[in-house]
Amino acid sequence: MAMSLSLDAQAAPTTSTASTDTETLEISNQTGFRAFRAGGFHFKRDEYFAHLSWPGGTHIIPIDVFLRAMMRDVAWGFFYGVVNFDAVFGTINHYGEVTMFAGRFDDAYRSAGRDYSERFQSAALMATFKELLSDWTVAGYDPFAAPMETGVPWGVKQGANDAAITRQRVTAHRMVGLLGDTPLRTDTAGFPVNRQFADVPQDQPVVEAEPGFEHEVSAYNLFGYLSRSDVTWNPSVCSVVGDSLFCPTSEEFILPVEHGNDRCEWFLQLSDEITWDVKDKETGKPRARVLARAGDICCMPADIRHQGYSTKRSMLLVWENGAAKIPQMIAEGTAPVTPVQF
């Protein structure tokens, strides 16, 4: 199921000069798709590409790459830190406001003085992004699915697939399976076992709670739960203890964005393997390539961006510290960008 992290409420400013200047533009006679504007940024699509423009610059992104990235930016509520659609375009979450940029984290753009950015109120930009995603996603295509599990986004306007792009967020209040919390995934609820997880056992643990604690003591088969995920690269909040969030997910093909961290982020590889490209957050220069196999644990520092590749659908546990104060502490130098200093 889809996820839309409620991060905007973390630190919304009391007064704001962020823009709400967004607009839905005309429908193309050639393709049937609408164009959109947010401040100085303009968006239009054709049969193969998303075309972006801003004062002093233009950019083209293949439409499948653009829609998969846009789906995550929308579903994650702009996520923690930076969501790079590619090396040029993306968003920065300020939790209540969001900066949309072109070239902000690209060395060539910045050194030439050609980078451009504007700051928006999150709700206004999110509304435009949702409308764009709905209009540009054609019938039969699911930007949340692995490429072999969906149709194609190419061509002129042909219907829509709002059912795919408006899935309800999976965010447990305490833990999946507890009374009144996020339910387990089952066949009857519309979550069959994924084709690549056919060998994952589906039995559930037996919990024998003392009388009066039946709804306080619980357990479930996490591997079975993840084997029934109908989306990829979409961390679901499955347990919460204070600011500690366990966000497991199933991964296949490519993480559609390069995620620029604003805090440390822990990865526990639960099954199979993922190759991670790690780059400098500010410049995009390569810093490491990490191969994570089942059982491996790594921490992505707060000063990098990362993108993963998984051929066999794999299971990954993402451990997030959701504390609102961390980005400011890191910016001020009172919190480290790595959990351990060597």
UniProtKB/TrEMBL annotation:
Region (Disordered): 1-24
Ranges where the Hydroquinone 1,2-dioxygenase large subunit N-terminal domain occurs: 30-170
Name used for this protein in its record: Hydroquinone 1,2-dioxygenase large subunit N-terminal domain-containing protein
Biased segments, Low complexity type: 8-22
Transmembrane spans: none
Protein species of origin: Novosphingobium capsulatum
Signal peptide residues on this chain, from the entry's feature table: none
